[in-house]
Predict the 3D structure of the following.
Amino acid sequence: MRVTVIGTGYVGLVSGTCFSEFGHEVTCVDRDLGKIANLQKGAVPIYEPGLEDLVSKNVAEGRLSFTTDTAAAVTQADAVFIAVGTPTSRRGDGYADLSYVYGAARELAPHLKGYTVIVDKSTVPVGTARQVARIIAEVNPEADFDVASNPEFLREGAAIADFMRPDRVVIGVESDRAEEVLKSLYRPLYLIETPMVVTGIETAELTKYAANAFLATKISFINEMANLCEVIGADVVDVARGMGLDGRIGKKFLHPGPGYGGSCFPKDTLALMRIAQEHGSPSRIVETVVEVNAAQKARMVRKIRKALGGNEAGKTIAVLGLSFKPETDDMRDAPSLTIIPALTEKGARIRCHDPEAMDAARELLPDIFFASSPYEACEGADAVVLMTEWNQYRALDLERLKSTLKSPIFIDLRNVYRPLEMEHLGFRYSGVGTSRD
């Protein structure tokens, strides 16, 4: 089939590339001339394991192309995916900014030829697909089209596997024709018996928000349990394991830390809050999840301050990991963006390292030192904070690390290391959810 993807950000580029790997003919469209020129040369603008190789392969085999020409790309398409950004509104009210989605709908509408399915791939509030359909019909009353919702469930750092071997595919449609087109696009997944949830458009739109909010709830819940463990002398790692072995609960997302971040959970929980409030059915749980997450980041600042003797002024702190999670260079709503400024405002000096995110972080975190290795970051530091659990930080040469530090203070915000082992090595260790502070 012929597929057009509007938007070459994270979702659009991964989705378009994977559709081409399925064997479809895919054209990715973006207004950014520089980005398209780089993609045509094989330069991928984001870090995602395996993506650059997959892009190069499918470009070479003639199934994947990049252009700024919306008209040409849309005219020949059987399906057009809208995969543009839906950031939180600049008004600060939590609502999703849909201007890019609606702008894409207006731009593509005049160029529709023959029956086409317009698919919302971006995460959008309930009712967005109806608005997209209205816009297209107003701009091009003669267009033969359906609008569908096909939310993405891609984890940064594992996006290709999530697309090629998903837990499920959710399709929101209102016509048999649209359903057939989308099922044809995903036909390769039938071979591995991927569940297909075919439902109404509003249901599909809400499913994405509900899924992300539930995962965020698990994170905030285990962080609250971690805080309780520190007070009563329990160990949250064992608590989480005891919970996660229950098949009804599962172990995923029960990892205490400095709070969730990234491009999805912060934005989507806020948007779901506003959707619920707007429709007179507020979600008290989601509202609390958001509050707990903000409080957790502030709590981590206090934890670091306590480990330093109650005052970070004039102290040098090494920070290992800046991105919101491993295997991505994404700095959007990363806990480091809250925690580091709070420390520098009180006079701390920061030396940091991240395997992939330092280029992005330089614009967001001025006046801090970016080191070429974790050991360089720790040179002369009064303490080291493990912020993001990159694999490179899971097997550090701890004796070497300790020798570079001014003080052997290790603050592990991801519980990568075991407290007793760290204490045996001579560190003053502080984790999350342990009374060993």
Observations:
- The first strand starts at residue 2 and ends at 6.
- The chain is about 45% helix and 15% strand.
- Residues 213-430 form a domain with the Rossmann fold fold (CATH 3.40.50.720).
- The chain has two domains: 2-199, 213-430.
